[in-house]
Amino acid sequence: AQSVAQPEDQVNVAEGNPLTVKCTYSVSGNPYLFWYVQYPNRGLQFLLKYITGDNLVKGSYGFEAEFNKSQTSFHLKKPSALVSDSALYFCAVRDGTGGYNKLIFGAGTRLAVHP
Amino acid sequence: EAQVTQNPRYLITVTGKKLTVTCSQNMNHEYMSWYRQDPGLGLRQIYYSMNVEATDKGDVPEGYKVSRKEKRNFPLILESPSPNQTSLYFCASSLDRKNTEAFFGQGTRLTVV
Question: Pick from A44, A46, A94: which is nearest to B90 by CB?
Fold first, then answer.
């Protein structure tokens, strides 16, 4: 079965420092991977996705993610964190079994960026 | 503006009192789904719909019903809510079952007492 793991409940980083939010996955077949962000009292917003092609994927708000097939990882990164990046981040993998589209989400990682 | 709209945003109800959470999208998307979000569990799919009159169970369908009579609307029905259905609910839509970028509503926080 497809699954996603986000090993950190919370990540703390100082403003201006680089940030990494970790995600590992387990899929059969080619992985379709996603990152979503949830700001307080808001729905999930799409950040970026990996379907095929370059292992480094660029997304919204200066975020990028690196797909590593050998390590089955899809870590989210940003070179310089902002306080406004503080939010809940979800990694997800598409489950295409049965011919329908479902997203399998990780438990989420709360990112706290301190001034 | 392209959006998924859920109502209500907040709801407190009593055990056993039927309720409906509405979801509407204005993007002419075929695929819609409902998720519930619980701490430490991420989002789990309740039901999904591939098009009008085509719905099916997700991972946690017990205690829920859905309908898809029109393409834009996908209401979530709790016939007899119980406290274990206290959660944050999200409706999502995507263009079709192959296009996997999903758009989410703002969420409905439901409390069942």
Answer: A44
Smallest Cα distance from B55 to chain A, Å: 11
> What digits encode the pLDDT tens for the residues A39-52?
987 889 999 999 88
Record: contact A41-B106, CB cut-off 8 A: yes
Identity of residue B98: K
CA A51/CA A59 separation, integer angstroms: 13
Give the pLDDT confidence of B59-100 residue by residue, as tens digits.
999 999 999 999 999 999 999 999 999 999 999 998 876 656
The three state secondary structure string of chain B is CCCEEEECCEEEECCCCCEEEEEEECCCCCEEEEEEEECCCEEEEEEEEEECCEEEECCCCCCCEECCCCCCECCEEECCCCHHHCEEEEEEEECCCCCCCCEECCCEEEEEC
Chain B contact for A103 (CB, 8 A cutoff)? yes
- Look at A42 and B56 and tell me if their CB atoms are within 8 Å: no
